[in-house]
Amino acid sequence: METLLPVQEQKANRVINVLSLAIPIAVAILLGIRQKVDLGSWTTYLPHINGIINSLTSVLLLLGLYFIRQKNVVAHKRTMLTAFTLGSFFLVSYVLYHLTNESTAYGGQGWVRPVYYFLLVSHILLSIVVVWFVLRAVYFALSGQIARHKQTVKWAFPIWLYVSITGVVVYLMIKPYYVH
């Protein structure tokens, strides 16, 4: 027999599920818009800011792991919430860039080209998947459901770390082809 979830948990699950679908759908729709919005030349710096955000997020994720292994829950919580906040800033910055600028074509040749596209495609696909895991991990942690938080983090952490690190690698690989 299925157990009934408390109303608050049902609402949280609904919000998490809706956001996990709405975010990638909204990003895909926004990326598909061919008419770019002119917000000024400052938006050409957003990929570089995103590279910094992804780098900081990767470091914070590793620090969060370190802190929890040291049983420093307060530092772990602060570090992970900062990583989550940076992820939110990244999403806004990413959407802003693609609303205002044409996508940059990768110009690398030879063996590095399929490596770049493998990293890019795996990064994109896993960035879609990780949203659900991260939202659940944050919810479980903040609601004091530590056992469920730990279960979710077994999936969320490695995927999120991979997405953050490959975001940096993909950025560094395409950086020479950005036009300002």
UniProtKB/TrEMBL annotation:
Membrane-traversing stretches: 12-33, 45-68, 80-100, 115-135, 155-174
Pfam families reported for this sequence: DUF420
InterPro entries the UniProt entry points to: DUF420
UniProt keyword list: Membrane, Transmembrane, Transmembrane helix
The protein's name in its UniProt record: DUF420 domain-containing protein
Originating organism: Spirosoma taeanense
